[in-house]
Amino acid sequence: xxxxxxxxxxxxxxxxxxxxxxxxxxxxxxxxxxxxxxxxxxxxxxxxxxxxxxxxxxxxxxxxxxxxxxxxxxxxxxxxxxxxxxxxxxxxxxxxxxxxxxxxxxxxxxxxxxxxxxxxxxxxxxxxxxxxxxxxxxxxxxxxxxxxxxxxxxxxxxxxxxxxxxxxxxxxxxxxxxxxxxxxxxxxxxxxxxxxxxxxxxxxxxxxxxxxxxxxxxxxxxxx
Length: 224
Ligand code: ADE
What we know:
This protein is α/β, with parallel strands linked by helices. The protein has 2 domains: 2-152, Alpha/beta knot (3-Layer(aba) Sandwich), CATH 3.40.1280; 167-223, Orthogonal Bundle (Trp Operon Repressor, Chain A). The chain has helices spanning 20-27, 64-77, 95-101, 119-124, 141-152, 163-166, 200-218; strands spanning 2-7, 32-37, 50-52, 60-62, 82-92, 106-111, 128-131, 185-186, 189-190. The strands form 3 sheets. The chain has a 5-stranded parallel sheet. Strands 3-4 form a two-stranded antiparallel sheet. Strand 3 (50-52) and strand 4 (60-62) form a beta hairpin. The longest helix is centred in the last third of the chain and has 19 residues, at 200-218. Bound molecules: adenine.
């Protein structure tokens, strides 16, 4: 998968996109991430990428021109399956959306800032709008990282133990069951006997029951 991320704050991506699973996926050649500073596509002498809203009102709006120039440049070299704008009024990200997007090859993520982007970008340049939840962040950068992370870990070969993505919470609309590790008895706090019984089928059955119990208790909406 190739991810092109368009942002006014490229420095924000330096840490999170260079650690752990994302880093490993890049090293394995399964993912490449390209960060583009929107200011590099501005024709303004001060490299401005935003302007006042027509009609007045507080807050600056990202202009269409640098975004269009950047996207057009990227399209010269690759075909994109999706051009995604991160915005609190987009479709809410969930595991099934992440599953679908993890199968795509080339994706552009556009991070908004300030008061948003010129509506013509949303109407004509973007193919999908995604929100990571019903709250407002200062910009789309953190949302883009959340989305990127949720997709990347689903790409076959990214996780060492591929079955572990399948047993995540929300796959099959169930929360994940509890997990334990050594010691089996910590100051009298014991691991359930079934998990050290060595009986694989019974362990699987126990995990299913626990997942269902937990989902019923914490997220009954997932079972509807
Ligand atoms: N930008 C600001 N808030 C956001 C959110 N909740 N989801 C996606 N992008 C955003």
